[in-house]
Design brief:
Blueprint (H helix, E strand, L loop, with lengths): L1 E2 L3 H4 L7 H9 L7 E7 L5 E4 L2 H6 L5 H11 L4 H20 L10 E8 L5 E14 L5 E10 L5 H25 L1 H12 L2 H11 L4 H8 L3 H14 L5 H12 L3
Helix pairs in contact: 2-6, 8-10, 8-11, 9-10
Length: 254
């Protein structure tokens, strides 16, 4: 199987949780007709793709060793790709609107189709949980996804299968969050800071005074001071020196 489930790739702070995390992820293959993956959506690379894809669709796992996500995307019929990605983007936008954001237990779910090894279109149910995010200019999401072949299965069986998988996905995500407490503290702080506060924080990190920031952003002196006070509170900083330190630590500003 394609597997990059070491701390080199996952960066667990609590390394004792790495083994139970991997065990839970591998256990997803116990669901008949399903396979799973763990991937950063912006990267042409799987951290993990289960061998269940062989029994579900007949594709040898080794086919994905070299080409990764690009090869995988070729299994999605052309008329399905735009619908699937549009649906995923819409659900990601809804998640980002939530106060919980990345901490949300939301499961993305949609019906779709994939090509088996004989290029026959097979109906599948796609379910996924967003595990992590990198807030760059374009956010990048770590996704754990499952695909279940639904063709020829009773609706009640698919529904029960779906609910069981959703419980497993939520369990895996909570374990992942527990394993990276400081990382998720940073994400929570980044989410709380507004775009204007981030602008002010960048200028504070450059060493600009309140007056200089006011001139640079064309806002009043008092407005800058309000943003500074909000940043002090959100970053739990006692003074300006600690604020500058925490801006660099929590907001990737040098």
């Amino acid at each position: 199987m394609i597997q990059k489930l070491t701390n080199e790739y996952l960066n667990f702070e609590k390394q004792e949780l790495l083994e139970p995390f991997v065990e839970k992820l591998l256990a997803l293959d116990n669901f008949a007709g399903s396979f799973s993956c763990l991937t950063w959506l912006s990267q042409n690379e799987f951290l993990y793709l289960s061998r269940g894809i062989e029994s579900a669709l007949g594709h040898p796992l080794e086919n994905f060793e070299r080409y990764g996500l690009v090869r995988f995307q070729h299994l999605i019929p052309d008329n399905q790709i735009q619908r699937i990605y549009s649906g995923l983007d819409k659900q990601l936008a809804e998640m980002e609107k939530s106060d919980e954001s990345i901490f949300s237990n939301m499961i993305f779910s949609m019906d779709g189709a994939m090509l088996d090894v004989n290029k026959k279109v097979r109906k599948v149910l796609f379910q996924a949980s967003i595990m992590d995010v990198r807030y760059t200019e374009i956010p990048s999401y770590l996704m754990i996804g499952t695909w279940t072949v639904t063709e020829g299965r009773a609706d009640i069986e698919v529904a029960e299968h779906s609910k069981a998988l959703q419980r497993k996905l939520r369990d895996i995500k909570q374990l992942y969050i527990q394993a990276k407490p400081n990382h998720f503290k940073v994400l929570k702080i980044q989410k709380q800071i507004s775009a204007r506060e981030k602008e002010v924080a960048c200028l504070i990190a450059e060493g600009l005074s309140t007056k200089a920031i006011s001139d640079r952003l064309n806002i009043s002196f008092n407005t800058v001071e309000t943003h500074r006070k909000n940043l002090l509170a959100k970053l739990e900083a006692k003074n300006s020196a600690e604020l500058i330190y925490k801006v660099g630590k929590y907001m990737n500003i040098n």
